[in-house]
Design a protein that fits this description.
InterPro entries: AA_ABC_transptr_permease_3TM, ArtM/GltK/GlnP/TcyL/YhdX-like, MetI-like, MetI-like_sf. It comes from Caballeronia glebae. It is a multi-pass membrane protein. This is Amino acid ABC transporter permease. It is a single chain. It is elongated, with a radius of gyration of 21 Å. The protein is 82% helix and 0% strand. It is mostly helical and 217 residues long. The longest helix is centred in the first third of the chain and has 36 residues. Helix 1 packs antiparallel against helix 7 and helix 3 crosses helix 4. The chain has one domain: MetI-like fold.
């Protein structure tokens, strides 16, 4: 043991929160773009495209995120690509997020009443116009609570990036603990910081879900 917990350690932990948020935002935004494409493919009337998207979703959801991190970070290095830890973590989380968000949004699209589609056909709207002008705006309201709920899980899953050396909140806690060996204090603080990040989002998601249930009644 070399000394105790100091203010510099606390500052280091707080600064690492920024990298956790950067990684979370990167994964969520890029995963959202990928998830939208996956969702469109999943609801496509073309059977081959829908089945391809289904295989992608099931494959990614069936692989632990840790394995995806190893594949991207260590796998690409075999072929001579030295990928920075932030890029590797962002890519792995993007792929992971796209499968889950695509599946969440697909369910919300398919939950829209069938008469909405039929009415759009009567107005001679194309399938894309129906989605863009009628279905997606309504489905967004339904999709918001589970999307925010997934964001909460994504923030917590960024802790796995520590295994490839990316210095986010969990990795910063490990580094400090290795120097002063006060695990209860260090990881208690790390857990408290994750709670502060995630709890407001969890409450927001729950609040939106409750409002949605009330309005549906």
């Amino acid at each position: 043991m070399s000394g105790g917990f100091t203010s510099s350690h606390l500052v280091y932990l707080v600064q690492s929160i920024g990298w956790t948020l950067v990684l979370s935002a990167l994964a969520f935004v890029l995963g959202g773009i990928g998830g939208f494409v996956v969702m469109l493919a999943r609801i496509s009337p073309r059977t081959w495209l829908s089945r391809t998207a289904l295989v992608y979703i099931e494959a990614i959801q069936g692989i632990p995120l840790l394995i995806l991190l190893f594949i991207v970070y260590f796998g690409l290095s075999v072929y001579g690509y030295q990928v920075p830890a932030l890029v590797a973590a962002g890519l792995a989380l993007m792929v992971y997020s796209s499968a889950y968000l695509g599946d969440i949004w697909r369910g919300c699209i398919e939950a829209m009443p069938k008469p909405q589609w039929e009415a759009s056909e009567c107005l001679s709207l194309t399938r894309w116009q129906t989605l863009r002008l009628v279905i997606i705006p309504q489905a967004m309201r339904l999709a918001l609570p589970p999307t925010v709920g997934f964001l909460v899980q994504l923030i917590k899953m960024t802790s796995l990036a520590s295994v490839i050396g990316f210095i986010e909140l969990t990795r910063a806690g490990q580094i400090i603990n290795n120097s002063i060996f006060q695990p209860f204090l260090i990881f208690g603080l790390v857990g408290a910081f994750y709670f502060v990040l995630c709890y407001p989002l969890s409450r927001w998601s729950q609040s939106m879900e409750n409002k949605l249930n009330v309005s549906n009644r």
